[in-house]
User: Fold this.
Amino acid sequence: MTGATLGALRESRWGKWAVAGPPLLYLVVFFAIPTLIMVAASFRSPGEFGGLAPFVGDDGRLDLTLESYVRLAEDTVYLEVFLKSVVYALVTTLACLVLAYPLAALIAQSPKKYRDLMLLLVILPFWSNFLIRVYAWMIILGPNAALAKAVNGVLAVFGVEPVPLLFSSFAVLVCLVYVHLPFMVLPLYANLEKHDRALLDAAQDLGASAWQRFWRITFPLSLPGVYAGAALVFIPALGIFAIPDILGGPNDSLIGNLIKQQFLETRDWPFGSVLSIVLTVAALALAGLAAWVGRRGAEEIARA
Amino acid sequence: MALLEIQGVTRRFGDFTAVDDVSLAVEAGEFFTLLGPSGCGKTTLLRMIAGFDLPDAGRIVLDGKDLAGSPPERRPVRTVFQSYALFPHMTVEGNVAFPLQMAKVPAADMPAKIAEALEDVRLTGFGKRMPHELSGGQRQRVAIARALVTHPTLLLLDEPLAALDAKLREEMQIELINLQKEVGITFVYVTHDQTEALALSHRIAVMNRGRVEQLDEPSRIYGLPATKFVADFIGHCNLLSGPVTSGADGVVALDVPGIGVVRAAARTIPATGAPGTVALRPEKIRIATFAPSDAADNRVRGTVADLLYMGDVTVYKVETEGGARVEALLANSQSGRTKFFEVGDAVEMSWAVDAGHYIAE
Ligand SMILES: Nc1ncnc2c1ncn2[C@@H]1O[C@H](COP(=O)(O)OP(=O)(O)O)[C@@H](O)[C@H]1O
Ligand SMILES: [Mg+2]
Assistant:
């Protein structure tokens, strides 16, 4: 279809729906309806063998209850797991930011002909399966691997007991950072690549040192990329369960593991739904808060 | 001693020489212009003065100090970039405050300095706007205010008006002249626009292929071009070339193919037979059906081959009987008619000896 006919189509009322309809339908079927089902399920009781109890019980009463919400509020263990998840996701996001920023800047400053290759290397890990990459860390961090031996060798010099690297918070965090790093690099690169070199020349001309040029010009102008990257890392990191399952110790259970447990092991769908809702709302709220704080910070930097 | 001295500065990119052994001196308080066609090395020279680029040979001395060791952020030099390079995430005030912050000016002194700089460029009241809320001319003024607020020793301007439309450009030219007078800061101005250079400058260095062809006051650049390139680049000019047939008493005669003997003023008399050129401005030529009998120095007959009506003046391209082309210009002011001649009219051109100016090869 040519641009002109597409434009004409967009003009007409029917055309508007023809263009916007399919994606809208997709969102309704695969996002809105499942979310509503989840919300509905959170007000029900669990069925005897998983699933939900019948809506109209034997005694003729409707199955509508706040029980799952009450359970969440009554036991602080869920709040603790949830806070731990937030901390893990935050640490992951910050570590990704610190690691990705120089990398993205390096790629953005490289000659054009090398950039595509460098970006390809950044997304190369996606070519192998997620779980395989997580399992690979079991080998890297395993007790007989060179890394563990080197670390414990150094510790032995100072007379410290050997520590296991695998099945620890350390292993979980390392893998979380590893898995999410490209999601931070790509939006940062897309932003930094657009920066006008003349602004840095102007800043330098006006007396700014290298650090001042970064902090007053490059960084504030890159904040949209930082937000995008942070959201792309933080939100999935908050809900992840595979990595703690495979690499974590007994205390590394996160909210994602808890939700998975409710659905697959405990078979308590209503409570699993409650936890999922909390997770979704929290992710949205935190992302919004971060954007707001960040924007305030940017104005602050611009004014300072 | 001059404020800025450029001594034998050369800059090569690969085997291409962008700036070729340039030497010049800029006096304090001067409005100095580097003029030349695109690609002649003006920006490269300016960037070396600002410190963004380093000469391969030669020295740049400012206020008696060799600048070789100082990076751009430590030179008392400010640049107004062609793209303005305003910081898009800062207000006008923020932009102007930036160099003050970098210079660690006490916060209490800033508002007064910012207000003064904005007043200098007639932008009082615009401090809270963002750059994207300004017109091109206003952005330009912010860039200038930002560069001037710390009272640098030297202000470098790289084609600052190139992006503006003709009318605004003329307004800004007048403002730049006044501003420079007011603040008393030395300006080194880069442009490829000869009328702009003539209008603004105290002195002009005309550059070509990385070299300075002539360094002079505007009236002398225009009236007494030292080379064919300068004569041709500055305004329109007839270049009449041929061997010298005689020369005495400050007047040389050239035998120009298609025109005949042309007599013109010369400061040094060349040897007979040497090749030379007479630079003759179109407006110095009188054009009439018959030249008046008292205008006897140089005269040549021809027919109007082309004409360009420009409102205030008309440019006539006259083909001589010998087949040479000469451009003559006639003001349309005196007559009620729009044009004096039509294509195909037979005309006679005449000019005084001192109308032309001899250039040695
Ligand atoms: N960094 C560079 N690398 C290679 N060539 C350059 C570089 N900078 C400028 N040049 C070349 O030097 C010449 C002069 O450039 P410039 O100083 O920008 O000219 P101007 O400002 O007079 O138009 C041009 O031919 C340009 O292509
Ligand atoms: Mg240039």
About this structure: DSSP finds 13 helices and no strands in chain A. The CA atoms of residues 82 and 220 of chain A lie 31 Å apart. Residues B 42-43 surround magnesium ion (ligand 2) (CB under 6 Å). Residues 269-303 of chain A form the longest helix (35 residues).
